[in-house]
């Protein structure tokens, strides 16, 4: 009986602590629901409705209508493919260039600290400024790039309007902006590798390439993976580079999912259809988020 | 010097947050808000100051002016206008339709007596904002799209009196100029996807065929006024020939370029002829630009096909009152003051191009040069866009133009697709309609 009473006391205490815990958690949970979950839920619900941006209060349930239309929409598939290409190529290049820069920053040569600061300039520039710079450089007639090409007798172009070069140019802008951030993150990670490892490797006769392969690379892989996943999320969701430079043209060669969502919602007023594209993006990005969370848990 | 403790920092942050929230939530009964594109512009500082002072004198309320790019302005009005801010909205001619559909605008039909200078507005300018049996906005500036050309260059080819009216002869001349000059295009148009000028220039030529707007209300629905033949005539004889004709009028580099390349390019003598409005007069940053505009430039109506009209795209800027404003009357005072002859005279001082073709009888045109007078005819021939969902129309137009200039489709096929798309598009702004 006394033993039972002890358990009761423990249970009561546990229950009280639990309720207190829940009580403390409740405001944050409510805030999260209002700020994060409600808009997501509303977006998902909206994807099953026909709704106009002009009168969002009028909702008509259409079941899977928006998704059926999406599957038949060739522009959606083009945008999905372009998003995948933009994300895959630009993140790969950002990583490779960032890694190269990080190795450069690691060198102990005079003036390297100034170089480190300069490296970050393109990362701190706002997207609109980057687009204006690039747009100005490739203007027909007076753009710097075209003037140089013309001087050497090479063909000139308004490169953002070229079906071949518009996407590479957008990728280049992404890389130009983000590679320095990769570099700094990877450089910081490299700084945490103990010098003793390199000294021991050198004594064992390991070449610079072998040191990089067997010491540097394994030690920065965790940070590298986190950076890659984060930038995949950022690039896949990025809207402003494309919208400000090409508007998705020419001939939809740079149309990506975020620009398509914007066009459908705010220009075509089709909120429901835009939401269905958003939900597809959400599913794809959730997969990457799961990878990110798993990586963060990785010990 | 006292160190800032964490506690101090938290206190300051809390106070700042509270103050911000109070500012956001509390509102200010003494304040009227007016969003117009030049709201914070130095160029229009005198006009804005005069407006603020005049509004305060007449309403005892402060006027807060905010400047937005038009796309942001429209989006912010559509998403937040129901909260009553802004009280007065400036915009472009396609905006009132959107706002009416969103039930955001106060109809002005019964308020016209409260605008002292109302009788002086040109009917054509007011008509641009009359639909659904109501007047929805007051006009304050306007223009018709015309052809700007370099007299000196055209003179070399015997066209001292201006470019040919016939589109065939016009494109031949432009092609010849382009071929003869290493560093000058004959005739340039904007073709950048998403650029609003592209659809306006395209519509100008289509209006010549329809002699009116692209869509007209037939009593039950909006009916397309153009057909594939008309679209083909425009796409083939202008857009295809511009880049791919026997004698292209412009270098291939210029495909997909926007308004900067067009307008600034003309003043820097990169093009002999372009489509433009009176604002071209404002591009005077260099001596070369001044010389081109003052000594070499003249204006004419757009070239056209045989048997078509002189119709062209009309742009009229609206001043609208938010139906959810806490004081419609005070908002009307702002719109009335801003569209008054006194205000327009101040506007002309800051930007002569804005009042080149005034929308009010009591305002004098800033046009002085005889060579620029064709802007008056262009404004008279101007056709205002129908109040339909322009977002749904623009995409198929961009598609058609891009397909032609990138030779992805023949002009005939692109025209056929465009006609089908524009018939099928639901251009009505009423979300409750079928």
TrEMBL record, chain B:
Keywords: Sugar transport, Transport
Gene3D superfamilies named among the record's database cross-references: Periplasmic binding protein-like II (3.40.190.10)
PANTHER family given in the database record: ARABINOSE-BINDING PROTEIN-RELATED, DIACETYLCHITOBIOSE BINDING PROTEIN DASA
Protein name: ABC-type sugar transport system, periplasmic component
Annotated source species: Natranaeroarchaeum sulfidigenes
Encoding gene, per UniProt annotation: ugpB2
């Amino acid at each position: 009986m006394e033993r039972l009473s002890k358990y009761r006391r423990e249970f009561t205490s546990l229950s009280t602590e639990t309720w207190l815990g829940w009580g403390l958690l409740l405001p944050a949970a409510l805030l999260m629901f209002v700020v994060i979950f409600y808009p997501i839920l509303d977006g998902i619900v909206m994807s099953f409705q026909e709704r106009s941006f002009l009168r969002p209060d009028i909702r008509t349930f259409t079941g899977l209508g928006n998704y059926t239309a999406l599957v038949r929409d060739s522009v959606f598939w083009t945008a999905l493919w372009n998003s995948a290409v933009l994300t895959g190529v630009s993140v790969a290049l950002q990583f490779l260039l960032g890694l190269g820069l990080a190795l450069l920053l690691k060198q102990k040569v005079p003036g390297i600290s100034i170089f480190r600061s300069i490296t970050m300039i393109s990362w701190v520039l706002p997207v609109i400024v980057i687009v204006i710079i690039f747009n100005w450089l490739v203007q027909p007639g007076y753009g710097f790039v075209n003037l140089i090409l013309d001087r050497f007798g090479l063909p000139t172009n308004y490169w953002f309007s070229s079906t071949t070069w518009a996407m590479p140019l957008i990728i280049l802008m992404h890389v130009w902006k983000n590679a320095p951030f990769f570099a700094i993150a990877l450089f910081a990670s490299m700084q945490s590798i103990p010098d003793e490892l390199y000294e021991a490797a050198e004594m064992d006769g390991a070449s610079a390439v072998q040191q990089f392969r067997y010491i540097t690379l394994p030690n920065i892989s965790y940070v590298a993976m986190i950076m890659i996943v984060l930038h995949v999320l950022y690039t896949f969701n990025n809207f402003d580079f494309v919208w400000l430079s090409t508007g998705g043209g020419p001939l939809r060669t740079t149309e990506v999912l975020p620009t398509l969502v914007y066009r459908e919602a705010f220009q075509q007023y089709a909120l429901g259809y835009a939401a269905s594209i958003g939900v597809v993006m959400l599913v794809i990005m959730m997969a990457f988020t799961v990878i990110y969370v798993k990586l963060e848990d990785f010990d | 010097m006292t160190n800032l403790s964490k506690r101090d920092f938290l206190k300051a942050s809390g106070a700042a947050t509270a103050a911000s929230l109070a500012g956001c939530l509390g509102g200010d009964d003494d304040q009227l808000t007016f969003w117009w594109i030049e709201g914070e512009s130095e160029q229009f500082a005198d006009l804005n100051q005069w407006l603020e002072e005049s509004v305060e004198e007449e309403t005892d309320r402060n006027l807060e002016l905010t400047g937005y790019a038009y796309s942001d302005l429209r989006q912010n009005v559509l998403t937040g206008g129901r909260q009553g801010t802004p009280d007065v909205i400036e915009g472009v001619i396609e905006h009132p339709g959107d706002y009416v559909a969103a039930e955001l605008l106060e109809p002005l039909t019964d308020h016209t007596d409260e605008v002292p200078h109302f009788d002086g507005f040109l009917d054509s300018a007011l008509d641009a904002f009359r639909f659904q049996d109501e007047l929805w906005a007051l006009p304050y500036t306007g223009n018709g799209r015309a052809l700007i050309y370099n007299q000196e260059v055209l003179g070399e080819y015997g066209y001292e009196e201006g470019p040919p009216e016939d589109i065939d002869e016009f494109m031949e001349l432009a092609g010849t100029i382009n071929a003869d000059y290493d560093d000058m295009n004959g005739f340039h148009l904007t073709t950048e996807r998403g650029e609003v000028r592209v659809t306006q220039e395209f519509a100008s030529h289509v209006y010549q065929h329809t002699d009116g707007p692209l869509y007209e209300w037939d009593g039950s629905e909006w009916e397309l006024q153009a057909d594939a033949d008309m679209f083909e005539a425009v796409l083939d004889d202008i857009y295809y020939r511009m880049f791919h004709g026997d004698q292209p009028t412009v270098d291939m580099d210029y495909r997909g370029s926007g308004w900067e390349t067009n307008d600034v390019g003309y003043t820097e003598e990169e093009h002999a002829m372009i489509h433009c409005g009176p604002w071209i007069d404002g591009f005077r940053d260099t001596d070369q630009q001044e010389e081109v505009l003052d000594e070499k430039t003249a204006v004419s109506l757009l070239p056209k096909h045989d048997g078509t009209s002189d119709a062209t795209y009309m742009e009229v800027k609206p001043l609208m009152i938010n139906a959810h404003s806490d004081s419609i009357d005070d908002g009307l005072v702002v719109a009335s003051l801003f569209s008054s002859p006194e205000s327009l005279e101040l506007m002309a001082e800051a930007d002569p191009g804005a009042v080149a073709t005034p929308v009010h009888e009591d305002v004098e045109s800033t046009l002085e040069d005889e060579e620029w007078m064709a802007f008056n005819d262009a404004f008279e021939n101007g056709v205002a866009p129908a109040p339909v969902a322009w977002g749904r129309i623009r995409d198929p137009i961009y598609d058609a133009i891009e397909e032609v200039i990138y030779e992805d489709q023949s002009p005939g096929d692109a025209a056929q697709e465009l006609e089908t798309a524009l018939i099928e598009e639901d251009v009505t702004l009423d979300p409750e309609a079928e």
